[in-house]
Design brief:
Two copies of one chain form a homodimer.
Chain A: H1 9-12, H2 33-56, H3 63-69, H4 74-80, H5 84-106, H6 113-130, H7 132-142, H8 144-147, H9 152-179, H10 190-209, H11 211-217, H12 222-236, H13 248-258, H14 261-273
Helix pairs in contact in A: 5-6, 5-7, 5-9, 6-7, 6-9, 6-10, 6-12, 6-13, 9-10, 10-12
Chain A binds a DNA duplex (30 and 30 nucleotides) through residues 12-13, 16, 32, 34, 38, 62-65, 72-76, 78-79, 82-84.
Keywords (chains A, B): DNA-binding, Transcription, Transcription regulation
Pfam families (chains A, B): TetR_N
InterPro entries (chains A, B): Homeodomain-like_sf, HTH-type_TetR-like_transc_reg, HTH_TetR, Tet_transcr_reg_TetR-rel_C_sf
Amino acid sequence: MTIRQVDDSSKMNFKIGCDTDKSPCLFKKFKTKRQQAIAEREQVLLCLAERLMEEHGFSGLTMDKLVAACDYSKGTVYNHFSSKEDLLSALCIKAMKTELQLFHKASNFKGNAREKLLALCFAYRLHALLHPTLFYCVLTSKTPAVAERASQERLDTQFVLEQQLAEVCNQLFVLAMEDGDLQGREEAEFAQLSFAAWAMAFGSTALMLAASTAQLVQALEEEKTLMFNMNLMLDGMQWLPLSSEFDYWDSWQRVGMEVFADELSTLKEHSKHSGAKGKIT
Amino acid sequence: MTIRQVDDSSKMNFKIGCDTDKSPCLFKKFKTKRQQAIAEREQVLLCLAERLMEEHGFSGLTMDKLVAACDYSKGTVYNHFSSKEDLLSALCIKAMKTELQLFHKASNFKGNAREKLLALCFAYRLHALLHPTLFYCVLTSKTPAVAERASQERLDTQFVLEQQLAEVCNQLFVLAMEDGDLQGREEAEFAQLSFAAWAMAFGSTALMLAASTAQLVQALEEEKTLMFNMNLMLDGMQWLPLSSEFDYWDSWQRVGMEVFADELSTLKEHSKHSGAKGKIT
DNA sequence: AACTATTATGACGATTCGTCAAGTTGACGA
DNA sequence: TCGTCAACTTGACGAATCGTCATAATAGTT
């Protein structure tokens, strides 16, 4: 199997088994029970960190608090995450993984290519609403302040996940092309079009999440706004069928009922318990 | 003792270019020289803070460092900014004010309504490139972690500025309607359409600024991407003339040459001195 | 059991945030 | 010019946090 990492002896003492699971389809390839236990503990720590952040807000996540909340000492925690930024980066990875799962679920929606893309956007917004703190976490991880202090391994993982997320979107353009819904576009343009879709979904979602700006758009129906914006842009791409000749609001609602019923009820439950909007502080 | 608007004739700042009450609280009327001096000092502190952030990065801005860098004591600095978040909020206001100035400049571009909207986007991107750290600053200020600890007065100012920025955009929709370039839209829809434009401009700009995602779009021509995305969406709105029948790339370049020549040369100068991209850490 | 490589511990120094009691300033009236 | 007092300034301080490292504990091997 894999050769043991004997080479880098200087780091050996300080780095524990940061699981080298760059490949998502992972065999758990741990030599010892010990490393296995360490990897499992990392997941426990991450869940704890996520809970701390959801409860006490974004700035309420502290290495000291995490240490106090778990059964291990500071040194042990620092063996897993070399800095607070590294922890953030790990949380970002966790968020992207669940996002990817939602994406895969969304692309199973039965419908034409454009409906599937809307389903993807539905998943994107759903994820942001379910985990608003993690959404900010992903944003923050792009900041150089974080990126510069995160371990290279995690940065690589982030990059891979980003590509996988983008690939799900790209495939829909290929599908639309095959179905004849998108004409006169070169395959080389797909990256550009895909980026446009991503930018619109991200921009709309992020702005709607931001509290103060919400005052400006409170007159709008938040639920419909993302779909509305995406439709504007997809019409601009001449992606058939156009929104004037197809009831995408019906599709949007069906995505919620047919694919994400569980998540939506969780969301309702959640917002009942904790006020109007998820706390992010 | 509260004689408010009596002594303004003696304190009038004769600024070239009729500055009536556009900026809400910059040129207030001060009762005493002392308060005048304090207000001026606040501007000095803000400039210092901005420089600290540009030099040492986003996380390099510290109250302690600011205190060390200026000639005043900690208590005095805290008299101006009640917390680090309040300072961030003040920087955000500063950023939005310069952005508003760029917006006004942009709307003077000679052309049809859609060209003017593109000019606005040009200004938006320009501002982000000129002050990447301030761009992140504005983003961060929307975060509850910051908003909850900023003074109410600053939050109000932010809200006013936000409305003014949005109003510049809204006016272009009115203009397009009057010119017959946008048909079949109710005025009630303007807020929605304006939000869509804002979301697209913000999403595209923010994603392109984020370092790691830039790897995904490095194949694209960054310079053209924002314009491309905006055109997709504006075509979707049926905002005439459509991009298929008008050379907006020419307009885009003319905006740079005719309106923002100075800023562009500053930008080039800046990027020469300090590597490829602005540091944000 | 003894030995060694790996992991765990928590006290510690360094930074940073924000406060406050004591000291200083300056506008104003006498 | 001087005294007064409200407003402003100062910097030492306590609390919280970050990250390190010498030392203790443990698992695996002989």
